[in-house]
Write a structure and sequence with these properties.
disordered N terminus, 4-stranded antiparallel β-sheet, 382 residues, 22 strands, mainly beta, 5-stranded antiparallel β-sheet, 10% helix
């Protein structure tokens, strides 16, 4: 957890004072998996679940998206909508994998999460999900548009929803994390425990940070079941829901993320699976946003394709600036892995960048033109 905290602080410093924007991010025909963890600061076994996520799931499954729901602590949402409100959770830490039923139950113990993610990753998506987000740092207003697109003709009802989650919340004061792992040598994933000998609460506090904490559910009434969107949709049917959210002063937008999803709605909660989802990071957003209005940056209509990528990426944009555009790519550690200047042909930037030497993971692009910086991110999957 300490490593994650350091990485996020490095990324926050990377973008400080820069004008960032982001247009669309989409599943683009790929299946993403939502892992929802039930946790709490009082839960002595929960750091073990956090280690499973950070050590076994996030590095190995780039299309796994994490949402951590806190119960009975200072980070709990009103009504505990996921824990007691869903009926899925009978102990802590437990979790759900796209809220599907696995071996007859939805709630899964932490030693089963990785296997369930592997199984879910091989399924064919019923929907594409696209997020269009913009953040106004002056007003702290976040605008989120979630679009679902049916990839085949379907029978039933599906809803749209979006979550706001936050990383690197310090494990101090009311958020100090208890632990039963002081003398436990092995994590549930079979690897050495990170928390042996660190006491309870975990000391020093810098050894632990709360990640992927769900701060808000944007569907009407904060419902985890979403807002009605599709009923018996035909192939290529598209529905969009737009939400607004004021990021509270107590939250750090540089560490915030948005999760958009299409989820099934049926009479029984055991038949309300998350069909597909996608994630965008607020720290790369600025206003105006091309998905919500006109960009005012020198570079407009910036696209990075394919995303996820394997052998190469294409970067395209239009610009009124005839000078050079610098492309800088950094990995999640903040280390620059590619840097080059490109000239603009007419009003178009069109470059292809090989990904040889880049390992699987998340990468961040800075496009520097006319002393302005536009940010994008992409995923390498090899």
């Amino acid at each position: 957890m300490l490593l994650k905290k350091i990485l996020l602080l490095a990324l926050a410093s990377l973008v400080t004072g820069q004008a960032m924007s982001q247009s669309y991010i989409s599943t683009n025909g790929r299946k993403y998996t939502l892992v929802e963890e039930a946790t709490g600061t009082w839960c002595g076994w929960c750091p073990d679940g956090a280690q499973v996520i950070e050590q076994s799931i996030e590095p190995n499954f780039p299309r796994a998206i994490i949402a951590s729901w806190h119960s009975a602590d200072a980070m709990q949402l009103p009504g505990d909508p996921f824990g007691t409100g869903s009926g899925y959770i009978t102990a802590y830490p437990m979790g759900t994998i796209n809220r599907k039923t696995w071996s007859g139950i939805v709630g899964q113990n932490r030693d089963l999460w990785e296997g369930d993610v592997i199984s879910d990753s091989g399924t064919v998506p019923k929907f594409d999900v696209t997020l269009a987000c913009g953040y106004n740092s002056a007003s702290r207003l976040l605008t989120v548009s979630v679009t679902g697109k049916a990839l085949s003709t379907l029978t039933g009802q599906w809803n749209l929803n979006a979550y706001i989650v936050e990383d690197s919340i310090p494990s101090t004061g009311a958020n100090a994390q208890d632990s039963y792992l002081n003398s436990v040598l092995t994590c549930a994933n079979g690897m050495p425990s990170w928390f042996t000998g660190l006491g309870s609460p975990i000391t020093p506090s810098s050894s632990y940070a709360h990640m992927n904490v769900v701060n808000a559910v944007l569907a009407t009434g904060g419902s985890i079941w979403g807002d009605s969107a599709f009923v018996d949709p035909a192939v290529n049917t598209m529905v969009t829901k737009t939400y607004t959210y004021y990021v509270p002063i107590s939250s750090n937008p540089a560490r915030a993320k948005v999760i958009g999803m299409v989820q099934k709605f049926a009479p029984f909660t055991t038949d309300r699976a998350i069909e597909n989802c996608i994630l965008a990071r607020v720290r790369w957003m600025g206003l105006p946003n091309p998905a919500l209005g006109m960009e005012t940056h020198s570079l407009q209509n910036v696209m990075v394709t394919p995303n996820p990528a394997n052998g190469y990426i294409n970067i395209t944009a239009t610009t009124a600036n005839s000078g050079a555009t610098k492309v800088v790519i950094s990995n999640i550690l903040g280390r620059i892995v590619f840097e080059q200047n490109y000239s603009v042909s007419g009003n178009d930037l069109n470059v292809q960048i090989p990904l040889a030497g880049m390992e699987s993971g998340v990468y961040f692009i800075r496009l520097i033109s006319n002393n302005e910086v536009t940010g994008r991110e992409f995923v390498v999957e090899k």
